[in-house]
Amino acid sequence: MAAVPPFPRNIMTIDEITENFALLDDWEDRYRYVIDLGRMLEPLPEAARTEANKVLGCASQVWLRTDIDPDGPGAPTLRFTGDSDAHIVRGLIAILFAIYSGKAARDILDVDALALFDRLGLREHLTPQRSNGLKSMVGRIRDEARNALVPAGA
């Protein structure tokens, strides 16, 4: 089995992102902030841009790679890397990673990211295609967490 890369601290926590959103009154400022978050994503290696890592149901191209640490805190622990060809989607990915990456699979299944996006007012400003893509990304992350629990005997 290949060594699992270390779990670096996310650039920003979801609490920090939420606090920053509260400071921004204008949707255009929030939109720019989401794009800036996407620019902070860890680069996805070209070799990870495979069909297996592609998220279906997104209007843009989106790739999501999952690394599982079977011995992480609250094992198994999942770490995500990803990318998109759309700037705003990269920002949405960054927010999802702030919510989910580095977390135990069971904790991932307990978090409703879509409700958080609603509280931030993000989903109401997404096109229907982007909103469906967001649902697909969340579904993929939750599926990865469920699958990670199977070998753990859960």
Q: Tell me the β content.
A: 5-15%
Q: Portion of residues in helices?
A: 40-55%
The helix/strand class is alpha+beta
> Care to count the β-strands?
3
Characterization of this structure:
The radius of gyration is 15 Å and the shape is globular. The two termini are 21 Å apart. The longest helix is centred in the C-terminal third of the chain and has 22 residues, at 128-149. The protein has six helices and three strands, in the order ααββαβααα. Helix 2 (27-39) crosses helix 3 and helix 3 packs parallel to helix 6 (128-149). Strands 1-2-3 form a three-stranded antiparallel beta sheet. The chain has 154 residues and is α+β, with helices and mostly antiparallel strands.
Features of the shown structure:
154 residues; alpha+beta; 3-stranded antiparallel sheet; 6 helices; disordered N terminus
Topology, element by element:
Blueprint: H1 14-23, H2 27-39, E1 62-69, E2 77-84, H3 87-100, E3 103-104, H4 105-110, H5 113-119, H6 128-149
Antiparallel strand pairs: 1-2, 2-3
Helix pairs in contact: 2-3, 3-6
Task: Summarize it.
The chain is α+β, with helices and mostly antiparallel strands and 154 residues long.
